[in-house]
Amino acid sequence: MKNLTQITFILLFVLGNVYAQQEKGIIGANNWLYNWTEFKPNQKQTEEPTQILTGNIDKDTRLLKRETYMLLGNVFVTNNATLTIEAGTVIIGDFASKASLTITKGAKIMAEGLETDPIIFTSNRGVKRSGDWGGLIIIGDASTNKFGNGSVASYYSDLAPSSYGYTNYGGENAESNSGVLKFVRIEFSGKRIKNDDYYSGLLLASVGNKTTIENVMVSYSGGNSFEVLGGDVCLNKLVSYRANNSDFKFNYGAQCKIDNSLAIRSPYVSSSSGARCLHLASYNKKEEVDFSKKGTKVAAKNLTFLNDSENLQSDIDKGLVKEAVYIGQNTSLDLNKSVISGFNPAVFLQNTIIINQENLDKIKFANMYFNNCKGNIFVENDSNNEDLENWYGNSAFFNVYSRSNNAETFIDFSNEKRPDFRLRINKIIASKDGVYAKEN
């Protein structure tokens, strides 16, 4: 009887540790990155295309796994048509024509891959690089705070005048349905349009909450990985890997939830200017928006933001590592149970944000794990963050501060084939002063 009690206690202890590991950062009883993600896509060769997609797709169309498709130029799904893509299908974006695929307002994409057979959008170049082709754009009729709704016309290169009408987004239907993206990879997208403008890997403009976006990986984007303009969309199990610009960018009154998602930045790939894991704004120019409408509001839970530096201090000294999160004026963020590891600092608030009770109530950080960051939460261009540290360091928020390297912080950080970026809770050494932990 005594042995049975001991065995039961041991099992409960082990189970308790397993579930404890899932509290902060990306979660799951198993590593949900297995099978469908790819962290070395430049080593994967694709078949020669057997079908060309160009112009407008104005009737229900099905793409088959047995074919390999090439996007040529700006391809639009129009006329309320549905584009269905079989699991395992490969779609190649043409480099020379800056290819892109747009699902226009009223149309749908049904791209339901499988964990063991994802749908892949990639480049047609022999040696693939970030920004080889445009990206995937989905347009809906949920709300935006822009006057007269909005247009994504500026995101395209060489857009024909007859196609401008297809680029309009916005409306009043928060529950609109633009389809499904599930177990999808988007690789080497984000081509430069002009000057400092780039496509995003996945751009969601006024997409409604009946749309399903989950298990989507954007890797090596020349622009943002995921960009959300307005809308009311729920995002789950997203992966941004080595984007040149921001990983997750929200703007123009987006009302969004994002859960259980991962961003991995590299100081040797990512831009050191204006590129963050999470970027919140309500506008680019004040005159664009109607302030009687809602500003951008994001509820985020179980996110992991990590910077992959071989020598963090050296990369900081070289100016290669910046903040992980940037919060603009007139936005709201509720960030909970998340990990920010290896940034300089963890968070910047735009310098126009007044630090008072009203604004602090709109910017929440709770149950966080701040690890190995050179400073935690600051107002932009202000080196004195004592008030913010005292506020967010209050024990009522249950935030944890630590210093450990990536190999000690995550379960299997260095595994190139099957990495596991869930947090290793047993390695956390909490800091008494709420800023840094003791050196290991």
TrEMBL record:
Domain of life: Bacteria
Protein name listed in UniProt: Polymer-forming protein
Organism: Mariniflexile litorale
Source taxonomy: Bacteria, Pseudomonadati, Bacteroidota, Flavobacteriia, Flavobacteriales
